[in-house]
Amino acid sequence: MARFDEIKNLVLSLEGDFEKFYEKGNQAAGTRVRKGMQDLKTLAQNIRAEVQDQKNAKES
Q: How far, in whole angstroms, is CA 60 from its chain's centroid?
């Protein structure tokens, strides 16, 4: 569950930058959003691999 909390915290930390980019047109905030989304993608891929490894270990 700690990994799920990491995802939630990352998404919540980006909320301000999303608002700045979409509502105020702040381009620097858009850059931070893109980086945060890349971090989210990487985290999700890592979690996916962990889940698959644990699933495979239990099947053996």
A: 31
Q: 């301000």: which residue's tokens?
A: 16
- What DSSP string runs through 1-58? -HHHHHHHHHHHHHHHHHHHHHHH--HHHHHHHHHHHHHHHHHHHHHHHHHHHHHHHH
Enter the pTM of the model: 0.85
Query: What is the chain's pLDDT, residue by residue, as a tens digit (60 residues)?
Result: 899 999 999 999 999 999 999 999 999 999 999 999 999 999 999 999 999 999 999 887
